[in-house]
């Protein structure tokens, strides 16, 4: 499971990074979203992966580390708000500058 | 009551911000009064906290009375108290300046301003790594909106870069926090310091990776060389009071570097000791060189001041890179000076731009100013202070920095710092003579500037002579702060009395 998990996180990060480096605002926003998904997955795994563990403290020995769950929740909320903001910002930049290039260039040889 | 004083710098702006959200438009007078009163109260609280911390006692506030390492704590030591006071002084100048009319160019200026203060104060106080991230986000989100305040093409374009870069930075911050939590099993910085001290060797690589990633994030906030390209444009296009407040934002990054690496990777960290040092040292020197070139190349007064912020960042980071108590003491003195004076210069640039009409802050011939004499005097004081020429505080700050360099460090720091100062001096004198002397064509027109703007600028720029007059007490305080930072054991023992035996 670790391998699958690591690969998912890695692929998401790579895609996010690639899209973030594009020249148009839309791919950049999608890239940032993918990056934040990857980060959430990564944070979730940072307490170590266990299967079938109880979600909260129980009498048994092995239970899931509750801290990463709390952190992921915080990170999701913050990431969601930031994505909403950056979408609005990109739209405003599109209407004020007249095109959707991140540098506001007129012609683009991409 | 007194033991709750530590949480006030966070609660006060939060409550004030909520009060200010009451209505989006209108109620101008009410909003201004609430905002200024809250900021002045914050200043008083910061003075109280500074007096409390000056004795060397470390106090902490466990939120909800959950003790460290399980709960979130706010920690007050000399460094945090000093940073809080600098923020509050800067904020008073900026908010009074904004009351002259800048706050009405968009909506919710004062509420956002207070929340920005909330984020900054929280970042200075918190003793928890994840909480540091949360406060960074608070201050960033407020700064995104403030940067856009008033709108306009240039601001939106600068904002796009700023927001995207900082969002990527936030992701990196979370990854770094995740790695450090995975390797050490805690997020409380004091607790992490203990665990890093007796880290199993197979985890050293992980912690190194996490720590250096954190350095990238803090470097982005502090605007260190490969990560500073967002800064000049963002600062030059921000509204003046916001740009003045942003003068403290780069210092948040510098504070974070100072705090995290002196606490986690101090003497006890074994093989990981001072792992950031070579990176910070060389990159700071490169930042200085690049900023010197930028200062010379700037064709706009606001851009020039933005590059002067970069010069100060390079100087401050070089102080961290030297990693000696003497250097830290020097950099803290320089930090107070540079934050307040560059903040004042941003405000002054706005006033000059307003009086010159169409020419604005561009360094071209324009019409003469109505209140040219007063502005020229202030510019003279600010320029001398920021370039580091006696008799003002910049000279003392830079002399302390130069004095703190030892051995081969001198070989690198002295020429670079002195050449950059020369570049600033040339650029500022060129700017001043263009703005004030080469402008006698055309008619004098325009209205006198509001008194609140004068107050804001004089309040901030008076730091330059005051820091010289009070250089003795200030530098003895910064020296004590540096010693406290060099001995993180005291902080760890205060926060975690039960684990004190484990700390070597």
From TrEMBL, chain A:
Which chain regions cross the lipid bilayer?
Answer: 6-21, 28-50, 70-91
InterPro entries listed in its UniProt record: CPA3_antiporter_subunitC, NUOK/Mnh_C1-like
Primary localization class, coarse: membrane
In terms of superkingdom, the source organism counts as Bacteria
* Cellular compartments annotated: Cell membrane
Q: Which UniProt keywords apply?
A: Cell membrane, Membrane, Transmembrane, Transmembrane helix
What Gene3D superfamilies is this protein classified in?
1.10.287.3510
Q: How does it sit in the membrane?
A: Multi-pass membrane protein
Family the UniProt entry places it in = Belongs to the CPA3 antiporters (TC 2.A.63) subunit C family.
Q: Which PANTHER family match?
A: ANTIPORTER SUBUNIT MNHC2-RELATED (PTHR34583:SF2)
**Protein's name according to its UniProt entry:** Na+/H+ antiporter subunit C
TrEMBL record, chain B:
The answer, when asked if Ribonucleoprotein is one of the entry's keywords, is no
Keyword list (alphabetical) reads: Cell membrane, Membrane, Transmembrane, Transmembrane helix
Under the heading Pfam families, the entry gives:
Proton_antipo_M
**What's the protein's topology in the membrane?**
Multi-pass membrane protein
Q: Which InterPro entries match?
A: CPA3_Na-H_Antiporter_D, NADH_UbQ_OxRdtase, ND/Mrp_TM
Is Zinc found in the keyword set? no
Q: Which residues form the NADH:quinone oxidoreductase/Mrp antiporter transmembrane domain?
A: 127-420
Q: Where are the transmembrane segments?
A: 6-22, 34-52, 81-100, 120-148, 160-183, 206-230, 242-264, 279-297, 304-322, 328-349, 370-392, 412-433, 454-474
Per UniProt, subcellular location reads as:
Cell membrane; Membrane
Q: Which family does it belong to?
A: Belongs to the CPA3 antiporters (TC 2.A.63) subunit D family.
Q: What is this protein called?
A: Monovalent cation/H+ antiporter subunit D
